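[agent] plan:
  1. take the single chain provided in the ticket
  2. run structure prediction with default settings
  3. attach structure tokens to the ticket
  4. add a short note for the reviewer (M.T.)
[agent] executing step 1
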Amino acid sequence: MSQVTAIIGLGNPGAEYHETRHNAGFWMVDAIAHSAHAELRPEKKFLGHYAKVRLGEHEVHLLNPVTFMNRSGASVAALCQFFKLTPDNLLVAHDELDLPPGQARYKTGGGHGGHNGLRDIISALGNQKQFHRVRIGIGHPGEARQVTNYVLGRPGKPEQEAIGHAMDACLATLPLALSGDWAKAMNQLHSVKPD
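[agent] step 2 finished; step 3 output follows
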């Protein structure tokens, strides 16, 4: 299995979306950049904010597309073409309705589960689904028709703290994931219980 050399966060650009649940993927990549004392900067050729960081012994590309969620694939495809990356070099961080705040899960492959960002990336990669994901739990509003307003709403303070806790757990397991030890990374991350 190829090594992860790029971590992509999913979200919507602009101040009005910055603190919304749908931007949990952006928050994750921002947290990784912060932990590496790096800053994501606008990069036109990748249609996003980009940084190259060193995490332990691994050099990793960080990218937050600024194309809006449902056009994330164009940004990811541009990064892949430039650095000659394959889908299994990618780790995509995104919000996950099916997990409660405070939980996060690694996953490799699979469908988009109705997530527009994942749907567009799968399409832009020529229908290839074998990229890694880190699913950051935001909880579910309970009814399908409430989902849009929910994901574009801001989490309350306890919820935000729980999401932060899950992201800390992701950061702690990232070195294992980057080394290709997915079983151990999953084991550690998946044993973290929401508060």
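[agent] step 4 note for reviewer: Residues 6-190 form a domain with the Rossmann fold fold (CATH 3.40.50.1470).
[agent] ticket updated
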